[in-house]
Amino acid sequence: MSFSTDAWTANKALYDTIRAMPFNVALKEGSLSEDRFKHYIIQDAHYLIAFGRALAVAAAKADDPDGIVQFSEGAKVAIIVERALHADYFQRFKVTPADFESTPLSPVCHHYSNFLIATAWAEPYPVVLAALLPCFWIYAEVGRAIHAEAASPNNYQAWIDTYAGQEFHDAVAAVIATTDRVAAKASPETLKAMHHAFTRATQLEWMFWDSAWNLGDWPV
Ligand SMILES: Cc1ncc(CO)c(N)n1
Questions:
Q1: Which domains does the chain carry?
Q2: Is residue 77 classed exposed, middle or buried when 0-12, 13-18 and 19+ CB atoms within 10 A define those classes?
Q3: DSSP state, 104?
Q4: Half-sphere exposure of 142 toward its Cβ, with a 13 Å CA cutoff?
Q5: ∠219-117-133 over CA atoms, to 5°?
Q6: Any ligand 1 atom below 6 A from CB of 135
Q7: If we measure between CA atoms, which residue out of 167, 1, 16 comes closest to residue 84?
Q8: C-alpha distances out from residue 120 to 137, 202, 206, 208, Å
Q9: What is annotated as the active site (predicted)?
Q10: pLDDT tens for residues 89-145?
Q11: Best probe residue, ligand 1, of 47, 109, 162, 213 (max atoms within 8 Å of C-beta)
């Protein structure tokens, strides 16, 4: 079985939990409060900078030229396309660049961002890809599932359309393919580390939405 099928099966229960989270249900129904979405989108803007940085390191570690192109392009798209989406919502919710700069990373965003950057720098290429894969794959699945059932009109349609869109899904399929290709020649120890990284990132995806729902902040 491929790494991706194995990893998805092993984490399916966690994915089902993510789908049923109050944040995602409310997003689908269009009833998500603006303060919760605003919290989410500010933290996500911080997160995407770390995500882009980790993708750039993955590009530098790629085992072939196609991988350099794939992940440097991924880094670029993470910053450019998603910034545009955020700029839209920042304007709508009146978040100024100064507000964004002065809002620190929440504990969960800080943890997830640092997990990706630390993994990108310290671990071998296959493990880096396994850590990055849930960020792509879970958003693609959640995006499509929400898109299929979303209330219309929905305040958050632009977000839903981005992650349900064909362009994002093509990028996700390509990351799955590269991850499976490198996993197929990985040692048992590396495979084990890949599964560990994939599960950790999936947990952090859950925690990221949970933190937005609860307006997570530093307790002290
Ligand atoms: C937390 C998080 N994970 C994944 C994505 C998709 O790139 C995102 N925008 N934010």
A1: 3-213 (1.20.910.10)
A2: middle
A3: P
A4: 26
A5: 105
A6: yes
A7: 167
A8: 18, 16, 21, 19
A9: 205 (proton donor)
A10: 889 989 988 888 899 999 999 999 999 999 999 999 999 999 999 999 999 999 999
A11: 47
Pocket of ligand 1, candidates 135, 175, 205, 211: which has the most ligand atoms within 8 Å of its Cβ, to mutate? 135
pTM tops 0.95, yes or no: yes
205 included as an active-site residue: yes
For ligand 1, whether the C-beta of 139 sits within 6 Å is yes
pLDDT tens digits along 167-188: 999 999 999 999 999 999 999 9
179, 7 contact by CB (below 8 A):
no
- Rounded distance between C-alpha atoms, residue 136 and residue 28, angstroms: 19
CA neighbor of 194 nearest in space, from 173, 176, 209: 176
Four-point Cα dihedral 45, 174, 206, 195, nearest 10: -130
Indicate if ligand 1 lies below 6 Å from the C-beta of 208: yes
End-to-end alpha-carbon separation of the chain, Å? 46
